[in-house]
Write a structure and sequence with these properties.
- This protein has about 375 residues and is of the alpha/beta class.
- It has 17 helices and twelve strands.
- It has three domains: about 5-115, no CATH class; about 125-300, Rossmann fold, CATH 3.40.50.300; about 305-375, no CATH class.
- Helix 6 (about 125-135) packs antiparallel against helix 7 and helix 14 (about 305-320) packs across helix 17 (about 350-375).
- The termini are far apart.
- One of its GO terms (cellular component) is cytoplasm.
């Protein structure tokens, strides 16, 4: 009887699991499909004796493989793969629900083992240490209240015995650091965030992405299964069509997401929803009370004050100068460019735009200097 391992998680962790278990892959799933162009949907009446078939000690199925095969392969996975080949052990990353249920029914639960990506969860002490670290970090200036509110929620999750997701809404005007801060939180969990861009959620393609269509199309469920960490950033949540918001009720309430092809566990996930909502009333009216009530906290981000602005400008110049030669650095340092920004009366309040403007001015100054040097040499 075949022995199966269902691995729920990202590809890096799956391959690391196979390596640690010393699994030497004899064949990959797509090799079998490509090698047999004449596979039928049903097993022949007189199937070849199993003993005469090539023994596949270890068959590995990657999550990405499922997007490369037709729907009938998913529906007839057991017959086409297990019954037609002498497979001893099969390792499947993120099996679609139809494959998982079919395999359990055919080979029995006792012959199936589940393995999972091990996502980091901060301990109580790690939350406190991380709070002090990020408060004093030059990577993210300002937003002291937002930082503290966020870490209170992280602390609550660290102490909590249940595994429900933590759902935070970051709101406020554009360009004040909501997305940047979310990425900083991801670093605390030793991984990149899973970023979902919701400004695109306006079309029929978005419907298929959220609720699943066939296995060959991208989907939210697959992206969640392949996440690198439990930090999930849903950017520009306010830009999505409101008809899609009901897709998150079960996800935020019960900690799992299910579409037509997959069921995804979201235990201990931290969802960060960024938006340009201006106040709580604006949020409630736009997303509706049912979803509003499922948000654990709504955290406002504000424009930098004068001192924070000056520190932000200093950091921008410091970072950009690192990319230049010593001679180019002297040109910028001997100019009054930084002083103009530090002492500006009408300062740019969008941090993202401010960095781009300063960068443009620096390289404009360097270009003019290069032109002058070129003329003098000629």
């Amino acid at each position: 009887m075949v022995q199966a391992v269902f691995f729920k998680g990202n590809s890096s962790d799956f391959l690391e699991y196979l390596k640690n278990k010393n699994v030497e892959c004899d064949k990959y799933f797509l090799d079998i499909i490509k090698d047999d162009d004449n596979i039928k949907l049903t097993v022949p009446n007189n199937p070849q004796n199993m003993e005469e078939k090539e023994i596949i000690k270890n068959l590995v199925v990657m999550s990405s493989d499922f997007s490369s095969v037709n729907n009938h392969v998913i529906s007839n996975f057991y017959n086409m793969v297990i019954k037609r080949h002498n497979v001893r052990n099969i390792y499947i990353q993120n099996p679609p629900v139809r494959i998982e249920r079919s395999m359990l029914a055919r080979i029995g639960k006792e012959n199936v083992r589940y393995e999972y990506s091990n996502y980091k969860k901060l301990s109580e002490s790690e939350v406190i240490q991380s709070y002090y670290k990020i408060q004093n970090s030059s990577n993210f200036v300002g937003q002291k209240k937002a930082k503290k509110r966020t870490f209170i929620n992280l602390y609550k999750q660290a102490l909590s015995k249940n595994k429900n997701p933590l759902v935070l809404m970051f709101y406020g005007v554009s360009g004040v650091g909501k997305t940047v801060f979310a990425k900083e939180i991801g670093k605390l969990y030793n991984s990149e965030v899973t970023r979902l861009q919701f400004s695109m959620m306006q079309t029929e393609t978005a419907v298929n992405y959220l609720f699943g269509s066939d296995n060959t199309k991208p989907s939210l469920a697959v992206d969640l299964l392949n996440r690198k960490s439990n930090i999930i950033l849903i950017d520009e949540f306010d830009k999505a069509n409101p008809i899609f918001y009901n897709a998150f009720y079960q996800m935020f309430d019960e900690g799992y997401f299910e579409d037509t092809n997959y069921r995804v566990s979201l235990n201990n996930c931290i969802f960060i929803l960024t938006s340009n909502f201006l106040d709580l009333d604006h949020i409630s009216k736009r997303i509706g009370v049912p979803l509003f009530s499922r948000l654990d906290d709504k955290i406002k981000f504000i424009e930098l004050n004068r001192n924070e602005y000056r520190l932000f400008v200093e950091n921008i110049f410091q970072d950009l100068l690192k990319e230049l030669t010593s001679e180019q650095q002297k040109i910028i340092q001997n100019s009054n460019l930084k002083s103009c920004y530090l002492n500006a009366n009408n300062r740019q309040t969008n941090n993202r735009m401010l960095k781009k403007i300063i960068e443009k001015d620096i390289y404009s100054l360097l270009f003019e200097k290069a032109i002058q040097n070129s003329i003098s040499i000629d």
